[in-house]
Amino acid sequence: MSPTETAESTTREIEVKVPAEEVTRETDALIQKYQKLARIPGFRRGHVPASVIRQRFRQDIQNDVVDALVPKYFRKETERLGLTPISQPRVTDLHVHDGEGLHFKASFDVMPAIKVDGYKELRAEHPETVVTDQEVDDQLKALQESKATYSPVEGRSVEDGDFAQVSLDGTPKMEDEGTKPVHMDDILVEIAGKNTMQEFTENLRGTNPGDERTFDVNYPDDFSDERLRGKAFAYKVKVNAIKQKSLPELTMISRRKSESSRPSTKLGNVSVMVWSTTGSTKPSGKPRISFSPSLFAATISTSLRPSSSTRSISAWSEVCGLSQLRA
């Protein structure tokens, strides 16, 4: 029977008829099942006559017939008509009697018919992407920097281009609830680095391990980190060691690239990205942080004891969470 389309274009109603012989077959099968399970006084279990079962459990058997045949024939009829219900059917006008067939009506929702025209004429634009030699060089240089190693320097004082490994305490010079004191151990400060605050370069240049320096840093009103704009800190810095940065050859970076991974993780309240490389050895020690591009933008290198792997971590540190980066 063809489906009836109701006032709502997404609702269909069908009438389903189940042949009488199918109803009889299902009824007989249920009676046999009841015979095996029913306990009726005067009869041994499993030997109750079918007529007694039919009379005693008439309504229960009829309900079971409906439960078995309605879903089965509803599904067969929708498949025959090519309909795909997206809701549970609402069954009405259900008629079932002994010796007769079963018939019912079912209404249900289907997906709306959506007609799309004109899309075959659409054409996607493919803008040409040009990568310059300078962009390639910049990316290669950034990759080199990410794989840099730091080796100790002895027998001389700090020079431009060196990295001073220091411990520091920073105190806001003005009371401000939003700015808290800073304490960091064993961090790397690039002397005369393009992103290093000038006050750090001027006060740490020429120092030796064991030296201490006290100085102020006044952050300009247009400073890149809005948390530090227009603020001043008094720093007490102790130089622990001098380090020199070494960059790997590009060919070595290319060979290790396939062995590298960049899982994202969390350190305290600081988001970090982790790169793993192989084939290098660094001295053991505490985490080291270099100021780039400001005091609070840091690159942490966590050195392992001599082994086949090392790990470096790059992170933007929160002003109020720097102490959480301590080893």
SSE pattern, N- to C-terminal? EEHHHEEHEEEHEEHEEEEE
CATH C-level class of the largest domain = Alpha Beta
State which percent range the strand residues make up: 25-35%
**Number of DSSP helical runs:** 6
User: In total, how many domains does the architecture comprise?
Assistant: 2
Averaged pLDDT, please?
75
The counted number of beta strands is 14
What name does the CATH topology of the largest domain carry?
Chitinase A, domain 3
What does it look like?
The protein has 327 residues and is of the alpha+beta class. The protein has two domains: 10-109, Alpha-Beta Plaits (2-Layer Sandwich), CATH 3.30.70; 148-325, Chitinase A, domain 3. It has six helices and 14 strands. It has helices at residues 20-37, 50-56, 58-81, 133-146, 198-204, 250-257, and strands at residues 4-5, 11-18, 90-96, 102-109, 149-152, 163-172, 182-190, 212-218, 232-246, 264-267, 270-278, 288-291, 297-302, 309-316. The longest helix has 24 residues, at 58-81. The radius of gyration is 40 Å and the shape is elongated. It starts with a strand and ends in an 11-residue tail after the last strand.
Write the layout of secondary structure elements.
Elements: E1 4-5, E2 11-18, H1 20-37, H2 50-56, H3 58-81, E3 90-96, E4 102-109, H4 133-146, E5 149-152, E6 163-172, E7 182-190, H5 198-204, E8 212-218, E9 232-246, H6 250-257, E10 264-267, E11 270-278, E12 288-291, E13 297-302, E14 309-316
Antiparallel strand pairs: 1-2, 2-4, 3-4, 5-9, 6-7, 6-9, 8-9, 10-11, 11-14, 12-13, 13-14
Helix pairs in contact: 1-3
